[in-house]
Specification:
The complex is a heterodimer of chains A (about 500) and B (about 325). Chain A has about 500 residues and is an all-alpha fold. In chain A, about 75% of the residues lie in helices and about 0% in strands. Chain A has a two-stranded antiparallel ribbon with strand order 1-2. The radius of gyration of chain B is 21 Å and the shape is globular. Classes of the chains: A mainly alpha (about 500), B alpha/beta (about 325). At the A-B interface, helix 7, helix 15 and helix 20 of A face strand 7, helix 7 and helix 8 of B.
Amino acid sequence: MHSLGIAFDLLFGSPIILYSIIGLTWGIVGGSLPGISASITMALLLPFTYGMAPVQAIVMLACTYIGAEYGGSIPAILIRTPGTNSAAATVIDGYEMKRQGRAGEALGISLWSGVIGSLFGLLMLVVMTEPLSWVALAFKPTSYFALGILGLSVIASMTNGSLLKGLAAAVVGLMIATVGTDPISGVTRFTFGSPELLGGVEPVLIMIGVFAVSELMMQSGSKGLGGIGEQVRVRLPSLSMMNRLKRSQFIGCLLGTFEGLTPGGGGSIAAFLSYNEARRWSKEPEKFGKGSEEGVAAPETANNTVASAALIPLLSFGIPSSNSTAVLLGGLLIHGLLPGPRLFEQNADVVVGLYLGSFIATLAQILVGILLLPFCVWLVNRPRAYLAGFILALILSGIFTLNTSLFDLGIALGMGLVGYLMRRAGYPFLPLILGVVLGHMVESSYRRSLLLSGGDHTIFLEDPIAVGLLIASTIFVTLSLVREFRDARNAKLKDVHA
Amino acid sequence: MRHLAIATAVAASLSAWSATHAVAQTPVDYPQKVVTLVTHSSPGGGSDVFLREMAKHLPKYVKATFIVENVQGGSGARAISRLAAAPADGSVFYATTPTYIYTSLLSKVQHGYKDVEPLANFFTDSEVIYTRADGPFKTLKDVIDKAKSTRGRWGAANPASLERQAAEQLKKAAGVSPAVVSHEGGGDLMINVLNGTLDIGVGEIPELRPQLEAGKIRLLATFDPQRMEAFPAIPTVKESGYPVALEKFRGLAGPKGLPAEITKIWDETVPKVLADPEYQKVYKTESLVPNFIPHDKYQGFIQNFGSTTETFLKESGVLK
C-alpha cells in the first residue's frame, strides 16, 4: 500500500507526466535522426537533467530510451537508414513495405509492436526484477561464449544467398573487434601506439559509418533528388492484423527480455535474433525480406522490450547491459543514487516513479508517435540533397558529442567508405556488424573460460546454459545450410524445367 | 636547481606572510577568477563525481569559481594534452587517477604523465579483496591455502589496471600461481565472484556497496597501508602476512611550471577542504579515504607510482 501512496503522490504531486512525455518526444525525434542512436540521444539530454530532482531526471532519461527505440524505425522504414542501431533489422522488411506503398502500415506496426514490447518489458521489470536477477548471476564466462556463438550463428541465415560473401564480411567484423587492449593480458593490439584505440573501436561508430554514411554516399550517387515524395500517415494494424502479429511479437518479447537481462550488444542483437526466429516460426516465411509485416513487428517488439528489461540488471546490480543503460547509470550516479537491492528500499520514490513514468510513456507512445510523425516525415521528406547534408552534419556532430573526438569522426567516415564499397560489390554488411558487436564477447569469454579451467575445454560441457546455447547454434547453422542448399537445388531444377 | 631554490625561497616568504594573515573562515584570494577542473571521465563517472562534489566546497576556502570540463576519449590522453597545453597559472587542473599513468605507459601519447606537474593529492580509493559471503573463504589465508593446494581462481576488474597489478603482486608475495582473470569492469567481475566462478575479486568499495550492504559479499583484506576507517575489522594485506600495499590516488595535476604562490594556496586549502564537515559527510559515504599529499611530496609519489607500474607492466609482458 505504501508504494501505491507514493505512486499517487508522484502522479498528482509532481509533474512526472510532463517529464515522461518530454523525454518520450525527445527520444522519438532523436531516434528518428539517422546516426543519432538511443545512447547519443540520452547523452545529449543528460546535462539538462543536472538541475532536476532525481526522480524527474531518471524518468526523463528512461522515457527517452523508450521513445528512441520507436523513433529509430521511422527512417529505417522511410529511407532505408536505421535511426538507431537496434532498428537495423527493421530496415529489411520495413523499407520493402514502403516500396510497396505501405509505409504507413509499416510505421503503425512498428508503433504497435513497440507498445507491446514496452508493456511486456515493464511487466517483467515490475513483477520479475527479483526472480529474474538470477539470470544475470547464472551467466558464467562459458555461457557468454555460447551466447556469442549463438548470435554469430545468425549470420548463416543473413547472407542473402551468398554464404561466402557473408562469411567474409563477418570475418572483417571479427578482425575489427580485435583492435584495442587485449581483454585478458592487457597487451595493446593493432593500436599503432594511438591512445584513441586503447579502448578498441566502438561498435556505434562502425554502425553509423556502415549504415548511415554509406547510405548517404549511395543516395548522393543516385539521380532521384526528391524526398520520399508521398504523404505518410500512420495506419495502426487492424484487429485481424494484430492477431497475425501475435506470434512474432511473442518471440520479440521473449528474446528482448533475455537480451535486456544479459550484458551484451543491447537491442540490436535481440532485434536480429527475433527477426530470424520470427521467420523460422512464421506461417509465411517466404514473405520475409519481401515486405513481411511480421518482419517489422518482431525486431520492433524486441528492441522496445530490451529498453524496459535492461532496467532489471541496472537497478538490481548496477550493471548496464547496453550503452543506453550505461548513460542511465551515469544519470543515477550524478544524482547520488546507487543501484542495487538497497535502491528499492531507500529510494522507493525513484523506483516507483521510474515504473510509473515508463508506463505513461508507453501508453503515450501511440498518441505522441502519431502526432510527431508528420514532423518526422517532414524532416526526412526534405529534398534529398538538403536532407543528406543535414543528416551528415548531424551524424558527425552526434559522434563528436559522444567523446569529443575527431579521431572517432575519421573512423565513422572510413567505415562509411568500407560500407559503400561493400554495397557496390554486393557484400551484406549485417554480418560485419554482428562480428564487431559479438567478436569481443566471444573472444574474451572463451579465453576467460580456458584460463579458469587451465586450458581444459570440457569446462564448456560443465555449464548447462552453455551446452544448451551451443546445441541451439548448431541446429540453426545446420538448418540454414540445408535450406540454402535446397533453395540452390530448387533454383537449378527450375532452370532445367524452364 | 636555481629555479627550485628561488621557488622555495618564494614559498618560504609566502608562508611567513600568510601565517600572519591567515584567517580561518574567509576564502583566500586566488590569482584566477575561474578555475577549470578537467577530467577524462564522462558525466557521472568516478572522477567526474569527485570533481563536481569538490567544486561545490572549494569556494568556501578559495575565492574563485570552479567549473568541471569533461574531456573524454583516448583513455585520458586527450585530457592530459588539454592540460599540458594550458597556461601554468593555476587556471586549469586535471583530476589524476592511476589511469593517466597507465595510458602514458601503454601508448605513444602526445603528452604523458611526466609532462604535467602533480599538484596535491586528496584521496585514496581503498582496493579490497572480497569473496561471496556464502563461500568457503573466511580469511585471506584460506584463499592462499586453496591456491597452494589446487588451482586458485582470482579476478581483476580490467586488464592492465591497478587491480590486476595488486593481484599479481599478492600472487608473487604469497608464492602461489592462481589464474588471474581480467574482466570488463567491476560489475562483470562481481557477478563471477557471486556465482562462484572465482574465489576472490579485487575491487573498490563503491562498486561493491550494494552487494556488501545486502550481505552477499565478504571483505577479506584491503591493500591500503592502514586499515579502512569504515571497516575497522578488516585487516590489511600486509597484516595478513603478505608485504603488498597500494594506493589508488585521487588528486590534481597542473601544467608544468606551476608558480609557487599557486601550489602554496592549494597546499593550505586541501587540508581545510578535507576537514570541512559537509564535504566529509559526502566523501565518507563514497568510501574515499582522505590522504593529503602536499605538492613537494606528491612529485616523488607519482614518479614512484609510475616506475612501479612500469616495472609491473614489463614483468607481466605487457610492455617490452
